[in-house]
Amino acid sequence: MKKHLVFWVEEYFYNPTSFQKILSFLLLPLSWLYCFGMYLRYKNKTLEDFSLKIVSVGNLSVGGSGKTPLVSALALRYENVAIVLRGYGRESKGLVVVKESQKILCDVRMSGDEAMIYAHKIPHAIIIVSEDRKEGILKAKELGAKLLFLDDAYSKHDIKKLDILIEVESSNKSCLPSGPFRERLWDSKDVLLLKEERDFKRVVELKNQKPKMSLVTAIARPSRLDRFLPEVISKNYFEDHHAFSENELLEVLRKDKSDSLLVTYKDFVKIENYNLPLSLLDLSMEVDERVFEAIGNYIAKEN
């Protein structure tokens, strides 16, 4: 039931049917109220300075945009760096230090999939999950971080930071619940807006390719993978952050008689311990130097 609801909502926001377009139109008054409420929330926040350079990377709309590979590409460039994120989909609560310097301190169930990607991809970084971002920032500072990246924290208007937003193409520009936008790009807020193919490019490496592969993935808007896919026997989509069981993966292998399961890194970190035959679509980002120059200028600027 949850899976069907998630996919229905993704279709409603990004590829609506005629019925969904009518529903979206009818919900516009609620969207206006919601957006006005978010504006009032923004205007009533007071900035808190943590005496630490903080960069937030996110997007305004619901669904995937490439935040995780972009944060990874940016954080790899710097020393004494930390990443703080909510840790959506994890089984733990509160603040958890996922990785301190070179050592991973918990498993993916405690960290969530995105945090574990960072732990694997950025060997020198401190990784912290915390619903309370301010608590996470203070812990990262205590552990020696000099530069901190916040994953998806545009809406944290009470934290002094550089906001980087990924522009997501959508024909529906409305706020929730009529459209996919969680918040507007407020005129008085200083933001670095990045666009794919202009400011960054996705690079996909296919590892351990097999003659017969079945795609299995649990990412938002999985059709985004289509342009990177080799030929596959089947496409098996699960809701974003889905916790795979070994049996459901074995069932795909049996049903398709495939040689391996083709997965993204977000899926890989959750199923690597099952010791199943896996092929990997490993996504990374090539980031334009202008983005690093903007971050460098922010770091060099006096508080």
CATH class of the largest domain: Alpha Beta
Give the distance, in angstroms, between the N- and C-terminal Cα atoms: 50 Å
Mean pLDDT: 95
How many domains, as an integer? Answer: 2
Rg (C-alpha, Å): 20 Å
Strand order of the largest sheet: 4-3-5-2-6-1-7-8
Give a count of the beta strands, DSSP E runs of length 2 or more.
13
Structural class by SSE content: alpha/beta
Q: Would you give the CATH topology of the largest domain?
A: Rossmann fold
Description:
This protein is of the alpha/beta class and 303 residues long. The chain folds into two domains: 43-199 and 288-300, Rossmann fold; 202-286, 3-Layer(aba) Sandwich (Rossmann fold), CATH 3.40.50. It is built from ten helices and 13 strands. It has helices at 2-14, 18-26, 28-43, 67-75, 108-111, 113-121, 133-142, 246-256, 265-271, 289-300; strands at 53-58, 81-85, 96-100, 103-104, 126-129, 147-151, 162-166, 191-194, 200-207, 213-217, 234-237, 260-264, 278-287. It has an eight-stranded mixed sheet with strand order 4-3-5-2-6-1-7-8, with helices on both faces. Strands 9-13-12-10-11 form a five-stranded mixed sheet. Helix 9 (265-271) links the parallel strand 12 and strand 13 (278-287). The longest helix has 16 residues, at 28-43. The radius of gyration is 20 Å and the shape is globular.
